[in-house]
Amino acid sequence: MLEDIDTGLLFTEWKFENSIDRVTSAANPRNLERVPAGSEFEFQMIYDVEDLEQMKQDLKNLQFAMRLLEDDTLGGHGSRGYGHIKFNIRKIEARRLEFYRQAGNGVKSFNSLNEQELDHIAQFFGE
To answer: pLDDT by residue (tens digit) across 56-77?
Structure first.
């Protein structure tokens, strides 16, 4: 999608701004390079389960951190509306060791991480 946007740059755009010196009335033009609004990026994380209770707490903490990040901004100029992000988690997969031993088996998918699903994941790995 970003390749199709005509910004003169690959995957980014220029944002030109100007400030005026209040004493001398001199212009101070400047430009910023930024990622265009609406850009989407893929994100992948792999978590190895070693302790079921620790896994549940880690996933809760990850959810908490992602919600905090969505209410904050990345990079500079957040007060101007730059750097806002939203996570769109489409799928979560849990794989047992057998999945890697027998290709195509053992995949479980989940749409969200509520308490019931966390328990389900813990039961899945605890069997």
So the answer is: 999 899 999 999 999 998 887 7
